[in-house]
Design brief:
Blueprint lengths: L9 H11 L3 E2 L15 E2 L5 E4 L2 E5 L6 H4 L3 E5 L2 E5 L11 H16 L6
Antiparallel strand pairs: 1-2, 3-6, 4-5
């Protein structure tokens, strides 16, 4: 789960409720792992591509929390990039892949060479 408020054109913002309305559900989907509260929940059927500044450790988010042990990962300054109609929710980047990206970025920042 992510809260994203940037990257939308005015036209997209005007049409967003109509695009997502068919996917509104009464409560959090069973596959969504978050402690966050939302005003509206959606079925995870649309694939959204996000961009951001970096991955950071967060106490509020749970991505890869079983690997990090002191929180989860969050995308800093997330922004909407586009809807990906060529992908399904099942093809989304996994928590493990996000964790690996975070570790790889940390190694690059520290100047440590990767063994892979």
């Amino acid at each position: 789960m992510s809260k994203v408020g940037a990257g939308f054109s005015d036209k997209m913002l005007r049409s967003l409720s109509k695009i997502l309305e068919p996917y509104v559900i009464r409560e959090k989907h069973r596959l969504v792992d978050t402690g966050m509260q939302a005003d509206v929940w959606f079925e995870p059927v649309r694939f959204v591509e996000l961009a951001g500044a970096q991955l950071t450790v967060s106490l509020a988010h749970k991505v890869a929390h079983e690997l990090i042990k002191r929180g989860g990962l969050a995308l800093r300054f997330p922004r909407f990039a586009r809807f990906r109609d060529d992908k399904t929710a099942e093809q989304a980047t996994s928590a493990r892949e996000i964790y690996d990206m975070s570790r790889s970025a940390t190694r690059r920042q520290r100047g440590v060479k990767s063994s892979s």
